[in-house]
Amino acid sequence: MSIHSVKREQCHLAWDNSIPPVARIKSGESVSFDCLDASNGQIDPASTVATLRSLVFSRLDQVNGPIYVEDAQPGDTLQVDVLSIETAEWGWSALIPGFGLLADEFPEPELKLWKLDKEAGFAWFDEAKGIKIPLRPFAGEMGVARGVKGPYSTIPPYNTGGNIDTKHVTVGSTLFLPIEVEGALFSTGDGHAAQGDGEVCGTAIETPMKVTVRLTVRKDRPYTKTPHFSTKVSVNNEEYYCTTGVDADMKTATQAAVRYMIDFLCAEYGLGRTEAYMLCSVAGDLRLHEVVDMPNYVVGMMMPQSIFGGS
Q1: Has residue 145 been placed in a domain?
Q2: DSSP for 64-115, written as a single string
Q3: At which of 170, 201, 229 does a domain end?
Q4: What is the tally of structural domains in the chain?
Q5: pLDDT tens, residue by residue, 273-308
Q6: Residue-number span of the structural domain to which 48 is assigned
Q7: What is the pTM of this model?
Q8: Please, what's the b/e burial string for 238-276 (b: 16 or more CB within 10 A of its CB; e: otherwise)?
Q9: Within-domain flag for 161
């Protein structure tokens, strides 16, 4: 079966069904994408926090493609099997003014550069404190063109996918996307080396990546109206510490859960608030614990305890 290749420069900055495809493939064929990081190359291993002040926001979150899949018609489903992902040797995380769940509380820019130990499978968050993050790379952006005329920003997610930022769609997983235009027009990008559920500060461990997927048209899934996925979750008896937010407004409850985790990390592990917020984004998992006992929701921020004190 043929494997097609998409180069770094074959990218676009909006979901728009008028963008011509960079390749046409048959259903069931594979495509390899060579993607820059979400900054579109504006951040590199030599960058400083000053780099964030000069970011051109219109260039962020580019995606590579689109790919035209033969026999794909509106109403069909595109099955995306994630076959392989290779990150760079480095990555970055940042607090970018105006972005993130607690943007009003963290107005100053902050940049963290990471060295990714791909052989060992982790990156040090703080070696002196023994805090390290296991690597579980995935593409934050995977989507197909919308049926409505564009352009539409690549930053929010849509029912056709896009910036879904779902860490579970990694190697071995399968994503299902509703097709709204002929050929599907699939694109991907936004490489992440690791991320917590929620990506609360607005960035994960961002990194350039090479990702290979198999694209298959499915005629038997008319119920696929939003992104669905199947994935394997390993059971490793992980211990978590959880903080919660309780409120009638889910956003307020979510913000509280993260805020209380920041307080906990500062008190128990000696982190600064900026460090703790970033750690929540790359390692903490948000969960809906309770949604039926009105008027309040319970949202939890769960932090795996295995990241602390590791050598």
Answers
A1: yes
A2: EEEEEETT--TT-EEEEEEEEEEE-SEEEEEE-TT-STTGGG--S-EEEEEE
A3: 229
A4: 2
A5: 999 999 999 999 999 999 988 899 999 999 999 999
A6: 3-229
A7: 0.93
A8: eeeebbbbebeeeeebbbbbbbbbbebbeeebebeeebb
A9: yes
